[in-house]
Specification:
Elements lengths: L10 H4 L3 H13 L6 E5 L7 H16 L5 E5 L1 E2 L9 H9 L4 E9 L4 H12 L4 E6 L25 H12 L10
Parallel strand pairs: 1-2, 2-4, 3-4, 4-5
Helix pairs in contact: 5-6
Length: 181
């Protein structure tokens, strides 16, 4: 019915998150060293029902000892799903549950340098943010090529967004590496 904010309308999802739990428990049993991540789209804005549904699932999993190590955000920002300044709140809130977070599929319609810098700074501000993966290299390689959403033009030349990301990274304070005790 869509009101739950759940990822898909399928027979599996209608049963709740049980099948996701089974998948995580099975994966942990098969490989205790594997990093288990839940990765989803349309979970960027903290106020969205789907974001809250996934947050509540992860919170429930952590409380009940379901193995989950990280949450990935497929952040495809465009006119229908714009970047919101509460994105950092989303990353921080999930990280506060005791999971790592990562931006796993970043692309931004029009490649706004400001938005690319904001996303970079949002990740840098959350110690448990593992990193940012951009969904492609050149605009011509993108699944949304018509939106020119990446850091490089089709000819491989750098866009202002590239420089904005580089500047954000270069002005970030390095995180000290913990010394083993």
């Amino acid at each position: 019915d869509g009101s739950s904010g759940a990822r898909r309308d399928s027979n599996l999802q209608r049963t709740g998150n049980d099948w996701i739990e089974v998948a995580f428990r099975t994966a942990r049993a098969a490989d205790p060293a594997a990093k288990l991540c839940y990765n989803d789209y349309n979970t960027d804005n903290w106020t969205w029902a789907k974001t809250q549904a996934v947050y509540n699932m992860v919170k429930d999993f952590k409380q009940r000892g379901v193995p989950i190590d990280c949450v990935g955000f497929q952040s495809h920002f465009n006119n229908d799903s714009a970047y919101n300044s509460n994105y950092r709140t989303t990353l921080q809130s999930f990280a506060a549950l005791g999971v790592d977070v990562a931006v796993t599929e970043l692309d931004i319609q029009g490649a706004s340098p400001t938005t690319y810098a904001n996303v970079t700074n949002d990740c840098l501000a959350v110690p448990r943010c593992l990193g940012i993966t951009v969904w492609g290299v050149r605009d011509t390689d993108s699944w949304r090529a018509d939106q020119t959403p990446l850091l490089f033009n089709g000819d491989g030349s750098k866009k202002p967004a590239y420089t904005a990301v580089l500047n954000a990274l270069n002005t970030a304070s390095p995180t000290p590496t913990p010394t083993p005790t």
